[in-house]
Design goal:
single chain, 127 residues, Immunoglobulin-like, five-stranded mixed beta sheet, Ig-like_fold, MSP_dom
Length: 127
């Protein structure tokens, strides 16, 4: 049963944070890579602390062992210095997919009693 085994590791490139550079009068897009370095298929979902400013595409999906996906993290135009950006981050959540499940993302994988792991990537804004 997949739910009884904790999800393995994923890797992100960049590993620790996402950096956007000024000017902020136009939309910026930064690509990050998410790699399933575990031996099991995982479902992943991306959350953000500021849905008005930050978007991620695709926001969720399924990765086979050793498979990677490129995500586009976009930052919409905003008034730099006039808006609070201190808590901006995206969070990658992932969990093992049930044995025999189709390779299609399902939100309910995250709502049962299976273990969900999280990785926070803070967002830094350079002036």
């Amino acid at each position: 049963m997949a739910q009884s085994v904790p999800p393995g590791d994923i890797q992100t490139q960049p590993n620790a944070k996402i950096v956007f550079n000024a000017p902020y009068d136009d939309k910026h897009t930064y690509h990050i890579k998410v790699i399933n370095s575990s031996a099991r298929r995982v479902g992943y979902g991306i959350k953000t602390t500021n849905m008005k400013r930050l978007g991620v595409d695709p926001p969720c999906g399924v990765l086979d062992p050793k498979e990677a996906v490129l995500l586009a993290v976009s930052c919409d135009a905003f008034a730099f210095g006039q808006e609070d950006t201190n808590n901006d981050r995206i969070t990658v959540e992932w969990t093992n997919t049930p044995d025999g499940a189709a390779k299609q993302f399902r939100r309910e994988w995250f709502q049962g009693d299976g273990m969900v792991r999280r990785k926070n990537l803070p967002i830094e804004y350079n002036p």
